[in-house]
């Protein structure tokens, strides 16, 4: 499978979820145990209209799903999130976000992954971890 | 201020955020240090269309914002989420969710709050905590 | 089995662990899905000798093990901690701590439990959650 | 100040705490925003004597204090842990552990740091994050 075909496949898998379609995610790259997903800031994703900062829930969503898809790249079947932890480092008020997700540990019952989110200036915006139940 | 006037006020404050309007949140009750917010399951909020389960990011969003508003009920100015932790207990595929948020500890620099989310059968769906930066 | 016999049993199970013996834990009460354990402040447990405050690692230990034993009270076999989250609410510089641990959710692969730690004035000192791998 | 003098200083600062002395920590290296600390497995640190695995509370302690000292290397005054999250990846039953701690984000009110713990085979044992209150 070419890299382009693979990315198209991950895009389709991201787009299975109605909420993920609404977020407007884009699969940027994928490898064994890691995936990079991008997301564009837009008005609807805003928490505080005074400073136009993106809602913490959107960043949490990206960290949750990014980690899950990182586990999926290993051909393991992760079926649900057990728990999620997010650190918010800097507000985002414009531009494209890039979420880099990597498997920390693959297990038979649970697996864990870490996601780091950067703004379009390459600055750390949010980061966190999920633990996922294996199927 | 009557209870109804107060609830209307919290509803307005919830609706300031475009993302929170999209979620369709409803302020159900509010007191010193606690707030109850409801949310209706709908197709757009789904993660996995096979079982119609609500996306973990939606539940994380509700826990993040519920805790923030619980801190706001104390007339303290919480300005941003420092970190968020979510436990997923059971998938939700229909009905109304009820999120009960309570302040754990008020501080001058940071405060913490806990949110518990129930489905319309009163079963525990998700729960978690946020730490919030004070203004 | 009388309540006393049961408590003696939990005390023995706590004391299997060399580190737990060193901590000087005491099983105070136990029921289906919950356990209460106490711990005395002492010089060796201190982080900062300037204010004699107990080390955060000691409180994290109590929250980790309290949750595990809460799961064990259900006769389920929890074999290891998957992850642990701790909130620190107030420093402790003297007296007896009381840790109340309750199961949040029992599962076949993982279970979760919450522990709340109080000082001898009944004030909230620390609280947190663990997710445990089931045997 | 030579590197040796600096390490001696960090060792002294680690040894201020009675609990940290008991743990037997050793400052291995330190730079701006990061510190490496080692710890030897010993019987007293064990949770389960059946497999001699180190107690999760010990690993949580190392992640808590490692992150705090990483913040201190920036000459910022971190005064207390706000919250702590730990992922357990693999049991440790022998040898020397190496904890590498790095600042994630320095703030005026709170800062965050991440710590990764390896066994003497270089395998990931535990990792996690703390948020620290600034003085």
Question: If you had to describe this structure to a student in words, what would you say it looks like?
Answer:
4 copies of one chain form a homotetramer. Chain A is an alpha+beta fold and 135 residues long. Chain A contains 3 helices and 8 strands, in the order ααββββαββββ. In chain A, the strands form 2 sheets. Chain A has a 6-stranded antiparallel beta sheet. The first copy, chain A, has a two-stranded antiparallel sheet with strand order 3-4. The radius of gyration of chain A is 14 Å and the shape is globular. The mean pLDDT of chain A is 96. Chains A and B meet through helix 2, strand 3, helix 3 and strand 5 of A and helix 2, strand 3, helix 3 and strand 5 of B. Strand 5 of chain C pairs antiparallel with strand 5 (78-88) of chain D.
In short:
The structure is a homotetramer of 135-residue chains. By secondary structure, chain A is α+β, with helices and mostly antiparallel strands.
Structural features:
6-stranded antiparallel beta sheet; 135 residues; two-stranded antiparallel sheet; homotetramer; alpha+beta
Q: Largest interface: which pair? A: A-B, 34 and 34 residues
Terminal Cα separation of chain A, in Å?
Answer: 25 Å
Task: Please state the average pLDDT score of chain A.
Answer: 96
Content-based structural category of chain A: alpha+beta
Question: What's the topology here?
Answer:
The structure is a homotetramer.
Chain A: H1 3-15, H2 18-23, E1 26-31, E2 34-40, E3 46-48, E4 53-54, H3 56-72, E5 78-88, E6 96-105, E7 110-118, E8 124-134
Antiparallel strand pairs in A: 1-2, 2-6, 3-4, 5-8, 6-7, 7-8
